[in-house]
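Section 5.1 Outputs to date
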Amino acid sequence: MATNKKITDLSELSEASLANDDVLPIVDVSAGTTHKVRKDTLASALSGVSSISATTPIAVNQSTGAVTVSTGTIPVSSGGTGTTTLTDGGVLLGSGTGAVTAMSALSKGQIIVGDGSTDPQALSVGSNGTVLKANSSETLGVEWASESTGAVTSYTNAADNRVITSVDSSTINGEANLTFDGSVLAVSGNVTATGTVEPAGDTAAGDDAAIGYTAAEGLILTGQGSTSDITFKNDADTTVFSIPTGTDDVLFPDNAKAMFGDGSDLQLYHDASNSYIKDAGTGLLVVLSNHFRVNNAANSEVMLQATEDGGCDLYHNNVSKLSTTANGATIVGTVLATTDTDTSNTGSVTLDFAANQNFVLTLTGNVTLANPSTEQVGQAGVIVFIQDGTGSRTLSLGTDYETAGGAGITLSTAASAVDVVPYFVKAANSIQLGAIQKAFS
């Protein structure tokens, strides 16, 4: 037996080594089966065939051993193309069980696109400078269009870590004042944010000026300067308050006010000369303490103190002079009341009991004490009458002044005589005069 040979090698059929009864294997590649054919049967079938290709169909009848060679096309169902020729350079298009077709050779730059239902098509080449863009309104879903932005043709100030910004549609620039090394964004100049700036880490003692955040502390501001660590200013660039360097103090400049309440009801401030606690709103200024004390600026002397369920003390030169008690008050030393000394009195005279407790009146003519309107119930004191150098001046009383038995007051008549009359305000419009003490010398 001769060795296996390919059917396409027709010259092998005439080799002397092959006998007529030798069996040749015929392989149906599309079906994956092998048929055995006698050499003389195959030679007879091929008589008159000048050439044979790999796609030439050869049919073998297994029951009769007959071999049929066809020089036509191989159908798609048998693994063929269903056609005898295809366009050179064309792209094959399937058509179910129908013959394969070939598109015309594509022009330079053409690409194949589909519409999802019909055969793919060759998309015409776009004009120079256009780009292929998706467009669902187009039949093929794409179109050639002008670029929306120009290509970058110039890169200025290139350097490591510089952030790139756009100069125009074709130029970018490396910003010398804006760098990023992968962990630190450094900006030389002002930073303007139209949204929020949200730090996510704590600050450190060495930070010159830093904004931080922690879940426990919230927003953190840290700084260090030669005079102040942090300074808050208004839109006029005037200091509102500051944190002096290395301290936990808050420093308000002169006339800067710490104000509380919707109507700025409570104000704390210092002008160039004085300090103020101003309660200008509704209600009381209430100081809550179980032991309240006011000391001097040096904190070396007590000026006033009050104790819960106890007394209230007023001090002079660090010594208590007036103390309230359960029964009233205790005074250390003397109490001096205001005295009105008037060296010229004549006609109707009205005493001001609101401003004075004692009165010293020199009479330069006859006097009538008119009814006052300023007396305070419980008020007591003395009225001293002094005759001038002429003497014999008389005293008449308004109806509010009351004397024992309604007898009135008769003064000494000698020139320069001094008489003393005590008084006590019993009620409104009732000033009771005591017995006159005459002719003091």
